[in-house]
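During the practical work, I selected for study one protein's amino acid sequence and its backbone structure tokens, as given directly below:
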Amino acid sequence: MLVKTHILKQEDFKKIALKYADKSATHKEQEQVEYFMDRLQHEHADLPIKTSPAQRDRILRSVLDRNPVKTLNTKVYWGAAAIFVALVGLTLSAIFLLPAQTITQLAAKGEKKEIILEDGTHVFLNGNSSITYRSSFEDKRHITLVGEAFFDVARDTTRPFTVNMGDVTVRVLGTSFNINSYDKDRIKVSVNSGKVAVRSTQVDTLIHLIKNQQVEFFNSLTAKVSTADSDDDILWTKNIISLKETTLADTATILENWYDVQIGFADPTIGQETISGKFKKEKLENIMTSIALLKNLEIEYKSPKQILIRKKEEQ
């Protein structure tokens, strides 16, 4: 499942807010405003903004009309409504008035998420992954990544875009690239367009990559640069699992993140076997059956969420 989150810019929000207030906003615009309201409800409920009771009644009534089944903390929601009304009246910018907040976006196992940041950068999060960043980039654009993500970075020569994964940091001005950091001891960066600079605190060198180049760090101590079609590394954004001489142990990790299951091996040596192939929007059961046929294995479903792979007994 792909979940899309849009971080609104100030000027865009003002336009949509006006449409929301007079009920001319599209369904998508309503969702964007209500997402913003929810954030304010939880993060900035105590901010004092002066508005008239009539203004507060108008906006709260509008929210309630559109969300009749939503449970609201009325006291908290007044604060969010007040900020919203102030924005509608163009009397202040809540986004820039409030101190920048730390935001974490998480894609759970079995989920994928697309996030549009305030600078226009698109981030695609794979399952069991997260990014953390400040709500306002101001003079720098910095992201912390756990897991895997594809970045299509909006170009800004005055504010470099950096992604940190512990010892490894990626720095760009505007380009697209994929980072796989599920295993902290084996981080891979693949470039799909533009130019990327990658550095490890453990490797005393700055590595520059261009389209269809990759660098893989092992324990942050050694780096291996290669050339291949980087589009293969982002097939996951199109719901395609791509395996290239991938060990069954790594394949199990991929499937666990995609389908929110646990996969074990009756014999650890099974995990060293390798497999190649592509699966597009395939059911997990079909993938497991293919693996069993290709590698002469047996699949045991201990429960819907727990799978055990064992060697096939000789007849």
The longest strand covers residues 141-152. Residues 13 and 52 are 21 Å apart (CA to CA).
